[in-house]
Amino acid sequence: MLQPSEWRFESRLPATFKTKSLRDLLIQDWYLPKHLVFSLKRGKRVLVNGRYLPVNFPVNSGDLVQLRFVATDFDHPYSNVVPDSAATVKVIYEDTNLLIINKTQGSKTHPNQPDEVGTTLNHVAAYLAPKGQQPYVINRLDQETSGALLIAKNPAVVPVLVRMVKEKRIRRTYLAWVHGCFNSQQGIIALPIGRDGHDQRKRQLNGIHPQMAITHYRVIDRQPSATLVAIQLQTGRTHQIRVHFAGLGHPIVGDPLYAADPRQQRLLLHSWQLTLPLPFSFKTCTLIADPPTVFQRFERRSNQ
Questions:
Q1: Which residue spans within 200-255 are E strands per DSSP?
Q2: What pLDDT, in 10s, does the model give residues 79-135?
Q3: 75-167: what fold?
Q4: How far apart are CA 109 and CA 120, in angstroms?
Q5: What does CATH list as the number for 6-73?
Q6: What are the coiled-coil residue ranges (predicted)?
């Protein structure tokens, strides 16, 4: 597949836009890192109304802003993921920059070896190949976690989305069935998480080299032996949701590391809602990934 050598974007500033410098637009509103703004400036690859404009000059509502990125702007301009079957790709949202899919439970997010196939990203690479595009993973979900997964379709939006994640501009809500019943309707779990000294796969509360972790939850449904909770993370530690609820004595149903459930019981953790600003625009979208049928089957079984 012929690799693209440049990526172009344009956006007309809305009527509600308040005059500010081009630099502030690029950094504050569009989340571009400073080194990319410098590259655009040095290459005179940022145009306003068809003409190059120094980044300290003001831009106004109605202005047309055009950006052109080239491969040398990025350390890794091409993802080079080996395409696999696209049969499992369930698209929730797609535009010229982004792809959000409902990840299948049991599928790894991305390959760990150069020629590895069979992961979600390999499947997405096969889906995008006919369009001449490649996938760039922004965040990952554990193999047994299903739900909304954010993927970039060009290298220019990767640093934008990474910065949005870091600055908590992207909000994700999870659903989980946990063992036992909660007395409270909502709560905050603020407990440090570190490595488990006995199992390198696991984390534990106050483990080795702990870092503070904060999880918000609210109860959605109660069954005799389990509770359905909606969860938002204020921090992003490895296995944070799984460790926090297990530490409270309410492990996630089907968790192979932190719950003593039968092996055939699948992990009931799902990335449910995703809210994010769309790159190089002033729009925000909220998307919902339908939970797998195992969530509904578990609810019916709990009621029997």
A1: 203-205, 208-211, 214-222, 226-233
A2: 889 999 888 899 999 999 999 999 999 999 999 888 899 999 999 999 999 999 999
A3: Pseudouridine synthase (3.30.2350)
A4: 5
A5: 3.10.290.10
A6: none
Residues 34, 38: Cα–Cα separation, whole Å: 6
Fold of 172-271+299-303: Pseudouridine synthase (3.30.2350)
Contact between residue 226 and residue 177 where contact means Cβ atoms under 8 Å apart: yes
Q: CA 235 to CA 286: how far, in whole Å?
A: 20
The amino acid sitting at 300 is: R
At 301 the pLDDT is: 63
Instruction: Kindly state the tokens that stand for 57.
Output: 């000059």
* Per-domain residue ranges of the chain: 6-73, 75-167, 172-271+299-303
Verify whether residue 142 is a known catalytic residue: yes
For the question of whether the overall pTM of this predicted structure is more than 0.85, the answer is yes
Place of tokens 């796969």: 201
Residues 112, 210, 196: CA angle, nearest 5 degrees: 60
Alpha carbon distances (Å) from 88 to 104, 118, 174, 272, 293? 7, 10, 21, 18, 15
In contact, 265 and 168? CB cutoff 8 Å: no
In this predicted structure, the answer to whether residue 302 has a pLDDT above a threshold of 90 is no
Neighbours of 211 (CB within 10 A): 13
DSSP character for 220?
A: E
Judge if 6-73 and 172-271+299-303 fold alike in CATH terms. Answer: no
Average pLDDT over residues 161-175: 95
From the candidates 24, 29, 63, 142, give the one annotated as an active-site residue.
142
Can you tell me whether residue 150 is helix, strand or coil? Answer: strand
Token pair of 8 as six digits = 């172009």
Among residues 211, 205, 212, the alpha carbon closest in space to that of 249 is found at: 205
Residues 6+ apart with CB under 8 A from 198: none
